[in-house]
Amino acid sequence: MTGTGGHRPDRVLAGKRLRLCNVLFPMWLFYLFPTGVWLILLPANVVVDTLVLRWGMKRLRIADVTGLWRRSILRVWGFGFLSDLLGAGFILGLQLLIDAAGLPWNTFFFPGVTLLSLPGVVLAGFCIYGLNARYAFAGCGLKWEQIRQLSRMLAVFTAPYAMLIPLYG
Hints:
By secondary structure, the chain is mainly alpha-helical. The chain has four helices and two strands, in the order E-E-H-H-H-H. It has helices at 38-59, 65-101, 112-136, 144-158; strands spanning 11-13, 16-18.
């Protein structure tokens, strides 16, 4: 680092000078740090989880939809946020590795954001499935196949796809 206020020095690539600066707030950091946006994200996630859970229960012809929703929604919602945080943390780790390696690759523009974020979204989806299948529906009186299918629906429809959105352009 130079004495340029924390910015990286200019780099030369293929005869052109590049100035690489850190992006202050990538989209997926909303999942890592509490901000005012969480006041919108928290209830919105409950609504999305509720819609997917109720749709899945009706699709699987589960009789006590309201009772099962009451017994499981807080765990489904909490495990969803925990999974999103794990995915965002994984992406942050990848970004730190790329920065440490000094690669002149801007991961905050398409397709870089997709290549960087996709593993985090997939990890979050697997965590949503695993945590819901193992813990969210425990003691709810469902068959294992119903638990697997509900967990799969939640993983597919509530994975944090917003992490794939490029910050700019």
